[in-house]
Amino acid sequence: MAQTDLTVSLPEHDRQAWQMKLWELLRLQTERYTSGQSTSVRTDTAQMLLRSICFSLDQIQQAQPERNLLQESLDILLQEGAEVVRRQTARTQLQYRRACRCLYQEESVSLRDTLRGIGGFFHDYDPQFFAAEVPCDIDYQLAHPVPDKLLGVAWLRDYLDRLLLEDTVLRRFRPDAVRRVLAASCPDHQELLVNLYEPAAAAALGVTMTEGDLFELDITAAGQVTLTAWLAPMSVCARRLALERAGETLARRLELPAGAAAYLRETALALAPRVEAVLASGGGWQTIFPAFS
Amino acid sequence: MEFQIIPQPRETVQILVEANRRTARYGLTLTPEQMTALAESRARALLDTGRVELGAGILPQIVEMFCDSPNLHQAEYAAALEALQAIFYRCKNEAGDLTPDEDILRLLRRAFDRAGGSTEYLAGCSLAELVRWVREGKHGTD
Predict the structure, then answer these.
(1) Quick check: B34 and B16 in contact, CB under 8 A?
(2) Are A124 and A136 in contact (CB under 8 A)?
(3) How does residue B141 score in pLDDT terms, banded at 50, 70 and 90?
(4) Which pLDDT belongs to residue A212?
């Protein structure tokens, strides 16, 4: 028998019951989406409707883990799902307003375009039928991307949260120091899809490891030599630990809130492969921890 | 995991049995074997056109729309339904999901009658060509 496969994550328990429930939910949503005037939809539309249903159910379940959604009526599930997603969208809109005040927008075309594009999300997003989609172009690259498992407005919320964490860290440094690091790390950063936070955070981590002047973000040439002398004799694990410690120390010095501190620690750990590459090749630190004096 | 959308032939056959009662007065009936074959061709047509259908399908509506056509005869009834079903899903893809089925069925019925019952002709035309062709006929330009 010919069949169409749609991919979806189902709970481990009660799989068969969930399959039947989703079948009925999809049938009802398809009917509503087409206003009862179409017996069929394209496979990709059905896939998006099904993803939306699963996303909405997941949001209800996260808000009320004790509820047994299998016992609920189809109508209640669809109504509540859309309502939960609408509330999330309203909260995300507040995050967006904060994100629009991020610093250094003049340093990145992609950041400006992305923020403008997200404004369109709140116009085009459909919590009722296509809640798992993100109907806008997001070009600006974060230092640590949003996990793939997040969808729809949950994905956008996480993206904005991360963007605001990066902004929180950047706000701790002198603007002229940040701009100098950006120009050194990528002279074309204004036009390219590059992250603004990562070069400044990396420079600050380098300064932290050599106890230099944090607010100038200048490790200095002497500091680079010191860094090599300090890191080279260590094992790979010890260097990784040193980076992690530097992340924690820097977060304390900058008096970062917990979320931003964790993000900075992640940034520090992500530098490990680049640090190893520099030490292995005997190259310079300039692309990671730039010196200006 | 894969969530499988498998058209249910039993549901389609059941509705075709009911349709048989209504179409008998036009001299059109389907045998049980033809009904089963049509239900299976529905699944193939959906797969070929990349569409998903969760109910009994479009066949009952095709039967309803075409049963009083003077160009539909018992000898080719089942074959015509199978062809019209495939043409319908293709046209639906071209029209978009939110175009009502009934609008497409009305168009196909007019084109079918104008083509003297030739489903081959309809199968060779795009939706836009069919619309243009039917519109020209309506204004008596051919």
Answers:
(1) no
(2) yes
(3) very low
(4) 84
Domain identity same for A186 and A71: no
Would you state the structure tokens that stand for residue B127, as one six-digit string? 């939706």
Cα separation, B34 vs B16, in Å, equals: 10
What's the domain count of chain A? 2
A107-163 pLDDT, tens digit each: 999 999 999 999 999 999 999 999 999 999 999 999 999 999 999 999 999 999 999
Number of A to B CB contacts under 8 A, please give it: 96
Rounded Cα gap, residues B111 and B131, in angstroms: 8
Q: Are strands A40-42 and A4-7 parallel, antiparallel or unpaired?
A: unpaired
What is the residue extent of each domain of chain B?
9-138
Residue A39 has its nearest CB partner, among B5, B43, B57, at B57
Q: Which of A45, A63, A83 is the last residue of a domain?
A: A83
d(Cα A59, Cα A71) in Å, to the nearest integer? 17
Range of the domain at A182: 174-293
DSSP-H helix ranges across chain B: 9-23, 32-49, 59-66, 77-95, 101-114, 119-123, 127-138
Residue B50: which of A30, A37, A42 has the nearest Cβ?
A42
